[in-house]
Specification:
Number of helices: 19
Helix content: 40-55%
Mean pLDDT: 82
Radius of gyration: 35 Å
Distance between the termini: 107 Å
Number of strands: 11
Order of helices and strands: EHEEHEHEHEHHHEEHEEEHHHHHHHHHHH
Structural class: alpha/beta
Strand order of the largest sheet: 2-3-1-4-5-6
Low-confidence stretches: 1-24
Length: about 525
């Protein structure tokens, strides 16, 4: 034999067995052979092996059964040197079939290495089993072993990159309908951060756990954190200038200044400006430098993010316009009946907060916020002589004013829009009482919609505290006593409890939107 032949060494006491903990910085080679001498030689020849700056961890198994356990434990094994004849004449072949058919592992490269080629003829084995190379032990010199392992690792690397990109693209496609349907900028930004992190950390939960991100929105020349993950989680709601991370602050300010996205080491900084002029930044920092494949996935996802920011900005503009129109109409009605314009704004905010505390989703509570200002829209059909009467209404007049509930319902019910449908319900039910003595339909308990039950409480709380043509404003203490006294009769008792438990929030709104003198 030549100097290229294998050189046998003394037993390596430090050879790693199948229970060794994985090192993600190294490639992994699994040697499955019942001959201890083979393990010693393989370890001696490859102990200093390195490819693309990464060393090699050699895992050992002395039977197909042990090899299967190793495969279950280590999902990132690059190459297997697999003997054929071990505990049975075809143990190695059976293990190869198990890896592909049961474990569903198509990436690990399997090199069949046998000292008894008669037991597994090469042509038959190559066709019948999904293996990647076939070597007789006698032909694997040290140089050929190096060449064989390097070729197999390179193949594994390329297949893993292709699979990683495929899974990343599939994840982007699958996630798009979910996160892009969000109409809340904060919810959308949070979804983007989570999705970006999972896209570039597909194969490593520890990398996912160590990645951190920020979503930034520019508002009145200030950059504010609207969503955050990882180590930045406590920074949500803060201004970027207050972050205790100079590198992150520098990158974000650079993106806004240059109005451009860029990569820097393990960080991605995405800058997005909508057609309406809104500016947003996504900052994501991984636990290791971003590979070219990661960058390509991020760029693909980033193009979708840009479109989504535009759509959210447009939707927000439409929603704000719709909200202003509803508030304006509600204010016109209230002004006609000599009630203050801020009444409808306060009722809207009370309804939103109470809705959230009562378990409504953000979308549903926002819908109620826009619908509740329309609760008295039916008053447009009530004569001024009744609506503006400074003294107590007589029986006939009261019957007339009660009709504003059904008038409002008839005005609003024709629209198929969810907001208008809720507004129609609120207009109809905001005088229904929990005990069934309200009007117009005498509904009771949960037969009254949650929106109706919330609006009557919000409306009464605000109306009693405001001056009207027929009464003076009540003291807050008297209003609260009235609400408690009517708990379970006029009002849903559960909503009254929630209202009292969160009273500070309602009083803050009351103080922030005072009546005009």
């Amino acid at each position: 034999m030549t100097t290229d032949e294998l050189v046998f060494a003394e037993e390596n006491e430090d050879a790693q067995d199948i229970t060794a903990s994985p090192d993600t910085a190294h490639w992994k080679l699994l040697v499955v052979d019942d001959d201890d001498f083979v393990h010693k030689v393989t370890d001696m020849v490859l102990r200093d092996y390195e490819f693309e700056g990464r060393g090699l961890d050699i895992l050992t198994a002395y039977s197909a059964k042990e090899g299967m356990e190793a495969m279950k434990k280590h999902s990132d094994i690059a190459v297997i040197l697999l003997d054929v004849v071990m505990e049975t004449a075809h143990a190695g072949l059976n293990m190869a079939a198990w890896i592909r058919d049961e474990l569903k592992n198509r990436m690990t490269r399997i090199i069949l290495r046998t000292g008894q080629p008669g037991e597994a003829p090469e042509q038959e084995v190559i066709f019948k089993y999904d293996i990647n190379d076939y070597k007789e032990k006698s032909e694997l010199t040290s140089q050929k072993l190096y060449t064989t392992i390097t070729s197999a690792i390179r193949s594994y690397r390329d297949i893993r990159t292709i699979e990683r990109n495929r899974r990343g693209l599939a994840q982007i496609v699958a996630a798009s309908p979910t996160i892009f349907k969000s109409q809340s900028l904060g919810d959308f930004a949070s979804g983007v951060l989570t999705q970006l992190s999972s896209t570039i950390c597909l194969e490593d939960d520890s990398l996912m756990a160590r990645s951190s991100g920020l979503a930034i929105a520019k508002h009145e020349d200030a950059l504010k954190v609207i969503a955050s993950t990882g180590k930045f989680t406590p920074n949500r709601g803060q201004e970027v200038s207050l972050l205790r991370d100079p590198e992150a602050v520098r990158h974000i300010e650079q993106a806004v200044r240059d109005q451009d996205s860029f990569f820097s080491g393990d960080a991605f900084v995405g800058y997005y400006q909508t057609s309406g002029g809104s500016e947003n930044v996504i900052y994501l920092r991984g636990a290791q430098p971003l590979e070219e494949a990661d960058r390509e996935l991020i760029e693909i996802f980033s193009s979708n993010i840009s479109v989504a920011f535009d759509n959210i900005d447009l939707n927000r503009t439409i929603t704000d316009t719709q909200k202003e129109l509803l508030f304006t109409l509600g204010e016109v009605v209230e002004t006609r009946s000599s009630e203050t314009a801020n009444h409808v704004r306060r009722v809207a905010e009370y309804s939103y907060i109470l809705g959230k505390h009562a378990g409504m989703s953000e979308e549903e509570a926002n819908r109620l916020r826009m619908a509740s200002p329309m609760h008295d829209v039916g008053k447009i059909g009530i004569p001024d002589a009744i609506l503006l009467k400074p003294s107590k209404l007589d029986k006939d007049e009261f019957e007339q004013i009660k009709k504003h509930t059904t008038i409002g319902y008839e005005v609003l019910k024709g629209s198929s829009r969810p907001i208008m449908q809720m507004a129609a319900t609120v207009a109809l039910e905001h005088h229904e009482r929990w005990d069934g003595t309200g009007y117009p339909n005498g509904l009771s308990g949960e037969a009254i919609s949650l929106a109706g039950r919330i609006t009557i409480l919000a409306d009464v709380f605000d109306a009693l505290g405001s001056k009207r043509i027929y009464k003076q404003a009540w003291l807050t203490s008297d209003i609260l006593n009235f609400i408690e006294e009517n708990k379970g009769t006029m009002f849903d008792p559960a909503l009254v409890t929630l209202f009292m438990e969160n009273l500070d929030e309602f009083l803050e709104i009351k103080n922030s939107l005072p009546d005009e003198n």
